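Protocol step 4 of 6.
Sequence for Cadherin domain-containing protein (Esox lucius) entered exactly as in the expression construct, tag removed. Do not edit the line below.
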Amino acid sequence: MAPSLRNMCFGSRGQLLVFLLYFSYVVSGQIRYSIPEEMKKGSIIGNVAQDLGLDLKRLRLGRARIVTGESVQYTELKTDKGILVVSERIDREQLCGDTTPCALHFQIIMENPIEFYRVTIEITDINDNSPYFQRDSIKFEISESALIGAKFVLERAFDSDIGVNGLQSYTLNPTDNFSLKLHIQEDGSKKVEMVLQKPLDREKHEQLYLVLTAVDGGDPKMSGTVQIHVTVLDVNDNAPVFTKDVYKASLVENSLRGTLLTTVSANDIDQGLNGLVTYSISSSKVGILDLFQVDENNGKVRLIGKVDYETAKYYQIDIEAKDQGGLSDSSKLVVDIVDVNDNNPLIDMMSISKSVPENSPAQTIIAVMSVHDPDSDINGVVNCVLGENIPFTIQSTSNGFYSLVTDSELDREKASEYNISVTCSDEGVPSLSSSVTLTIQVSDVNDNAPVFERISYEAYIIENNTPGLSIFTVKATDADWNQNARVSYILEDSSINGVQVSSYVSVSADSGVIHALRSFDYEQIKDFQFRVKAQDGGSPPLSSNVTVKIMIQDQNDNAPQVLYPVHTSSSLVAEIVPRSADVGYLVTKVVAVDVDSGQNAWLSYKMQKTTERALFEVGLQNGEIRTIRQVTDKDAVKQRLTVVVEDNGQPSRSATVNVNVAVADSFPEVLSEFTDFTHEKEYNDNLTFYLVLALAVVSFLFITCLVVIISVKIYRWRQSRILYHSNLPVIPYYPPRYADTLGTGTLQRVYNYEVCRTTDSRKSDCKFSRPELFSGIKSENSIFKRDYCMLFL
Ligand SMILES: *[C@@H]1O[C@H](CO)[C@@H](O)[C@H](O)[C@H]1NC(C)=O
Ligand SMILES: *[C@@H]1O[C@H](CO)[C@@H](O)[C@H](O)[C@H]1NC(C)=O
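Step 5 output, structure tokens:
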């Protein structure tokens, strides 16, 4: 082709050479051109006239024309210029397809003479077509479990161009998972395959987009592409995975059934059923399945039983998650049980003393107990307290042990029994508590002496009692118990007037009854006292004593005794009343005593019998005999009065006395009257005695007075010498007995009388008592003494 083109271009310059060349064609009557396809219309293909060696004239005249068997006239012969031009678009691919070489064949015919020439125009290929695929995209669905090396046939591309302009190669992009493999087939075409080089992972890339490019060999190269869309199909290649290795939850004990603990969760990145996770408890530990439940669909763990902190403080639950393909994962749920103050403290008495002696020192241990609370922390911290106002305390020893000890000394006599309530409470909120009550007996110790009901006793007994009479009862009580409180009474030894008290009274040891052992005479002993001891039965025994005073009560067992006027057989006493005496003239005074006392000695005087009626009367109380009217001449000289002295006892006792009264103006008158008067009257035996006694007393009084006066004189003289400058009054000393004697009253006289009666010491006692008697009388009436003395003279 090249030489012919060069020919055409250089034809005018080297005519000979062209001729020689074309000659051979002429000989064969044909020419041959070669042009590329797709030349513009009018493009010159070749100079036919020149190449065929024909004259333009000949062409014109010969009416040269192109004869072709085809419908489309691609070329046109310009006869005026003798050139062949393109008249229609020439597409090699349309004209020849894959056939090579591709050429147009026609004849140029001339007339006059008819000549024809064969013309062949070879159409050469240009790269005007790019490779192409029949589809825009190719879809694959490949399981992610596809093995390496798996092949997937791809669509091949087409290129209308031929030769080097035809399809040359393929490329695949990206090549992460797949590589391209070409097989040259028998017809020379290529089979394109995609080979899996790296496993697919749906979980990473579910959709893969690749581009297959087909490239031809033209210059420039042209290409066509097709999209490859790979959908990776899921395989259960992923197990579920828990979100945590260990789940933690805390649960308050005694929570209600159905309480949600936590939600466990596992993810499975697989799809569909392969990713559908169900949960279960796989723990094999006994009891777990009765307590907890996991919802198999949503992983919520709930309580279905009852949890008690005191039984288990935590639980470990193994939980399994499984997908439908059978892959699984496991995790743990650790449930901490939170304590609730649901247990009362437990009080366990380890030892108790049932009783404690009352003299036990403080801190004596009564009981030991252990206190325990199964709750934890402050819910299990226990404090114990005792009830109020009891002499005990509670002491915490160690480790939940408490001892109950006495706080102070006990006194059985105040409280013989204690109910000690021990209350132990924990520190939870709200606090729980338990309590126990111990009953402790306080045992007796002999710490109390018997105590008499009174500080001292006074008892009365009427004289002349029968021996053996019970006077009264002393009683002592002992606050102790039983034997320690058993009181016995003992009479303590003492003497009364030199006589053992035990001969007066006795005391019954058991009952404390005091008996008189003899008959008492009030006039002999008015009272006496002794001590009674009360002693308990303790060891050692305790005792106390009490003074008992027995007062003997008077009985009217003595009649009054008239002391004055005294009648003896040998003497006659008469009172002299002058006839001139006024009304109310005191004649005499009857003096009587009664050794009894009180009412029994309260004397009253009555006139029983008088010679002259209504001349004298006797004072009811004082025994004074007075005139009640003027004495007249008619009244006899001799008057005889009988006075009854009566005491006030029940029954009363009495004595009578005769009083002789002489109504006269002179002593001789009296004497003459009384000579026979004396014989008339009764002889009184006692009178002599009294007269002698009176005389002796008067004498004695006189001597005593003298002695006293002299003594006092001497004493004063000596005192004035000693107390030379002193003006101190000098007080004479009188024995106490004398000092008392001025008091009036029956008792005083009785006492005096009594002393006189003491037979052994009559004289000496009378020496002291007589003056008292007379001074007493004297104080009452001085007239009496005057008359009395007169009579003796
Ligand atoms: C102690 O309790 C007992 C029984 O409850 C009761 O009989 C007794 O009187 C109580 N003692 C005291 C001192 O409260
Ligand atoms: C009698 O009791 C008193 C105290 O009350 C005591 O001083 C005295 O010693 C006791 N007498 C006897 C004999 O026990």
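Step 6, annotate. Residues 1-28, 677-683, 725-793 have pLDDT under 50 and may be disordered.
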